[in-house]
Amino acid sequence: MINPFNQLLHALMQSTEQDLRRQIQFFKAENEILRSRLPKSIVCTPRERARLLKLGRPLGRASWSLITIVQPRTFLRWKNQADGTPSVRRRRRGRPRTPEEIRQLVLRIASETSWGYTHVLGELRTLGIHKISQTTVYNILRDHGYDLTLRVCSRPGTND
Fold first, then answer.
1. How many CB atoms sit inside 10 A of residue 53's CB?
2. Domain ranges, ordered by start, for the chain
3. b/e per residue, 108-142, with b = 16+ CB within 10 A?
4. Which stretches does DSSP call E strand in 9-127?
5. CB within 8 Å of 67: residues ≥ 6 apart
6. Which stretches does DSSP call E strand in the chain?
7. For residue 60, how many other CB atoms are within 10 A of its CB?
């Protein structure tokens, strides 16, 4: 019985560059058809990862257009992990934190005036700071221990 791998090697050895391109296109189409019949997520074993890395490294970035069972960025992560390269930090989700200068200004206004968060927000508006909401001012004061149940802010550590 003839080994299918030997048949493939024999066909590749006798092929021209144009034939190789056609064969790659055929294999890609075949791979897409097979993947459409599989579940959404494919989990590779460490041995399979190592094999893909071994075959994909010599191709360089060309492997990104060939790989279909995982995202190219997943393949790159595997490569970096195998090389010992530190992984790229992911961006934080959600809204960016309020700048520290604004946070300090909110705390300074509240501590010097004993105003509530609504009044503090109004003062920020008169200073030209419009990209902050009432809830943000409330959360800043609450996080720093101000008692917001009263109409005016009581500083932490005072008995107002």
1. 16
2. 1-38, 40-85, 98-160
3. ebbbeebbbbebbbebbeeeeeeebeeebbbebbe
4. none
5. 52, 56, 75
6. none
7. 8
Q: Is the pTM of this model over 0.85?
A: no
Q: How many CA atoms lie within 13 A of 10 on its CB side?
A: 6
The size of the chain, in residues, is 160
What are 122's two structure tokens? 């109004």
pLDDT per residue, tens digit, the chain (160 aa), is: 567 667 767 766 766 777 777 777 777 777 777 777 777 777 788 888 888 888 888 887 777 777 777 788 888 888 888 887 776 667 778 888 899 999 999 999 999 988 888 999 999 999 999 889 999 999 999 998 887 775 555 566 665 5
- Residue 77 has a CB neighbour count (10 Å cut-off) of 15
Is 139 in contact with 110 (CB distance < 8 Å)?
no
